[in-house]
Amino acid sequence: MKPDLNYADHLLVTLAEFRFELRKFLQFSENASIAADLQPQQHQLLLQVAGAAEGTPVTIAYAAIRLGLRHNSTVELVDRSEREDLIERTIDKNDKRRAILHVTRKGRQVLHKLSDDHVRELNEMAPRLVRALRRVQLHSSTSLAQEAL
Question: Which of 56, 83, 106, 140 could form a disulfide with 52 if both were Cys (CB 3.0 to 4.6 A apart)?
Answer without folding.
Answer: 56
